[in-house]
Amino acid sequence: MTDTDTIVAVSTPAGYALRAIVRLSGPAALAVVGRRFRPEGPVDWERTFRATRGVLTLIEDRLEVPVTVYVMRAPRSYTREDVVELHLPGSPALLDIVLDDLLGEGEEVLRLARPGEFTQRAYLNGRIDLAQAEAVLAVVRARNEAELLAAGARLGGSVSAQCAEAQDALAGLRAEVEAALDFAEHGIELIGREEFLARAERIRERLEGEVRKGRGELASDGRLRVVLCGPPNSGKSSLLNRLAGREVALVHETPGTTRDHIRSEIEVQGVYFTVTDTAGLTPSGPDEFEAQPAAASVGEVEAAAARRARELARRAQLVVLVLDGSRALEPGELGVARGLDRARVLCVVNKCDLPQVLDERRLADAGLAGEVVHLSALTGEGLDGLRQALGRVVLEGRLDGSAADCLFNARQREAVRRALRHLREAQETVRQGLGYEFTAFELREATDALGEVTGEVGAQEVLDRIFSRFCIGK
Amino acid sequence: MKDGSFDIIVVGGGHAGCEAALAAARMGARTALLTMHLDAIAFLSCNPAIGGLAKGQLVREVDALGGEMGKVADAAGIQFRMINTGKGPAMHSPRAQVDKRAYSLEMKRRLEEQPNLVLRQELVEALLAEGGRVSGVRCSSGAAYGAGAVILTTGTFLRGVLHCGSWKTTGGRMGELSAERLSGTLEEAGLRLGRLKTDTPPRVNGRTLDLERLEAQHGDAEPRPFSFSTEAISREQVPCYATQTTPRTHEIIRAGLHRAPLYDGQITAGLGPRYCPSIEIKVVRFPDMEHHLLFLEPEGRGTLEFYCNGLFTSLPRDVQEEMIHSIPGMERAQIMRYGYAVEYDFVPPTQLWASLETKVVEGLFHAGQINGTSGYEEAAAQGIIAGINAARKLQGNEPLVLGRDEAYVGVLIDDLVTKGTEEPYRMFTSLAEYRLLLRQDNADRRLMKYGRQNGLVSQRQWDRLQEKEAAIERLRRCLDTHREGGKSLSRILRRPEMSIGKLAQVHQEVRELAADREACEQVEIEAKYEGYFERQRRQIERFRHAEDKKIPAWLDYNKMPELRNEAREKLSAVRPVSIGQASRISGVSPADVSILLVYLKHGQGGTSSGLSGAST
Predict the structure, then answer these.
(1) Which residues of A touch B534 (CB under 8 A)?
(2) Residue A59 — φ and ψ, nearest 5°?
(3) ipTM of the prediction
(4) Model confidence pTM above 0.90
(5) B583/A contact by beta carbon, under 8 A
(6) What is the domain range of residue A16?
(7) What domain count does chain B have?
(8) pLDDT digits (tens, 9 = 90+) for B127-151
């Protein structure tokens, strides 16, 4: 563990907010910010809890951003380490640039914080007491799950497939270099300078492509993902049309009309949401909810659509559960919320223009009574209430801005960039003729960095590759 | 005990056992070394050579710690080479061909001369233990000896089986017995056993070789000794010879494969080490290769017997004959001893602490092949550590545990106890994260302090190191303070084409200080690679931080619901002593390590039971 590192993270939720906070904690926090900060007036860094206005100069002075810097000196800070907060305009693209620039210092100086790491440090440094230990563990546990989730998600993603191929090529290159070092006496054919450089270049191009792509994805994805779920014909599509202020979804009174996910972007109090409508999810039993083909003619297509919808709900940052107030709840209809963090579920009781039959005590029993909004998508009544509720969810910080997938976007990118830096260094060692032991040093660092995305490449695995590629043993 | 009591009993007289016994006796423990065969002390069962890549570094480290292997190799060596000199200094490794008989006698003599040490020929049959603590051993002769600590260095002798074609017999080495009963008592004591396999090549009569036709490989003109205490080596060196297999050899092997015990199911312990494959495996796995390199190495100065390095095999005798005769220079060769494979019991090493003491039997230490390693050097390295730690335990001191950042010995033992091994473990430089700093040239500067602390390094040797350090410091300061064209000489030295020799030509003071060759070497290496060394040192700082976070024995992984099941099982099995070690266990994620940190902190808070039930 490396809790002497200085860590950094965006500590406000993802999305277009008016203001965002970038927080650093650790011994190098002041120095890292200090190198980029031009205060408006004289500043005394020793004084703690002071706000200082000024300009942050980024990308080698090519970009200037207005910023307010808060400095909290150790031990009088949340983590009991030196903490610096940058309060910036809340544009995801800008935050991206700021993080890139700060992390450019290198992993020995600064690295991205893991989820819950600020809190963890607060605890380890005795800042928060024993009673809070459970909360810390819960955060760390969530992190364990988030990492697993992300590991699972990685298997399917295209970015990760590319990274995995690059890692494979990188491990192969490392094996060649290690073989040249450890088995020079075995009469094996050593990889030559030109071949090394060519192979390294191919890996470099591939990874650089991924970094560019990753950046694009993050910028377009700087919105909170909201998914509308609920039984068929509860009015999800109507609600989406209302929120979007235009017809984006085909509305029909036959349940099961929506098979494709329909998406719309809305803005509430300066925060942008991507709202996705899903096919109806209805229960088939008390423990499991399955897609129920609403019309007699449907089958596989809708089942597949409903599977995708459940997947969307799982990955969303906020799930809006839309229920029909004019109808009694059927067994298992709340099952869609099963397994989801309750703070991530917002209940909407639709059709308040009709006589209300739904028994809301059932919601309370299911632990979903926290936030219930009554509205009519047909008349528009209560829609403002929903908008306010959406805003509150964000402003109260109930959504974890570092939800697994957002986080892994940034984290993957940072790891890939680090791998790239070491790969370039490796090429440099070969160009300068420094010797393969230095090339190997850089390649190890590169595979370690990329391993954070694709899984570790250990020394034994490198040996495996050597033994399967070369006939070792004289 | 009726036949005598000792502080420490070492079982086995191989490379691990000799180092263990010498270290223990020198540290003041009344020590006995029991071996089945006193004429096979420090026997080189396989190739007649010491050192080589990564192994040479180990020998230098054993020497710095106060071990004997380097000194004996210097005395018994018949050809010395520093290999891999085409690469940077971190990759240089000393290697020597040694006279097999002379090596054994040199070591035996040193054991005999060692006060506090009893040598006795005995076949140990049982480990004696009471209440989870070792109390002694019982032998096939009926003799029983008491001991406060026992070090097992059983090599390939535990239920050893030898194979040559369809022929097989029990034995730990051709012509010797095996230890059939000891394994059972280890299992009774609660240890889990596994099985490994390794091969040897045929040995041939040099009179029947056409050596003139083969390429001779000579030693270095200026042999560099293994031991920091050996001043110089001046004796006539003998050459090795290189040859190679032919397509005809491979045909013969393929035709005989159905009779190979490796492939017909007779050998069940796997295919053996991948870095040292038998010739039949090479031919099967690399069918496109027309030739495989072989080295003919002399077994000694007083014998004509040659060792066929590269021709490891357990094929039947007639196939071995035919195969040998298809190799250039060996057409008329007479085989004196046929190659064979040996299968033996080992004790998977995750059952050990890093001190090499077993977790289930207090006072029982294991070193060498019993831990699943291969190689004389790996064995010696574990032997000296086991000897030191057995003695330290009886003295009531904390064990000596070298870090991965300090020594190849540390990497070796940490890998064994943290990760275990599936095949005989051999040292490679790529296994050492900090190999740029773990060089053969600075083993004394890294490790001699530990040898000294344990009384294994003489005053004279220690004084020499202090002088060397002082000379290094003087030279370094001289280069830092003198300038040429506005730049310090240290900076100028970093240029690729520059050397201290060149600086000495123009600088009087440098010339005087550069007379010390050892100091020169250190200063020059450090100047050349300063940037990388600095980065490795920073990595080591981070590594140390995690190593220094100790995990106390009270930590109960079953009371941590936040851990994933796999992590909980692995942690419970390995019982890591530090956060650093925990993070190296495969299947333990960074998040699992964070959870450990939180529990550790909680435990320091003073409550006894941990956070059981939290967040469930």
Answers:
(1) none
(2) 45, 60
(3) 0.86
(4) no
(5) yes
(6) 6-128
(7) 4
(8) 999 999 999 999 999 999 999 999 9
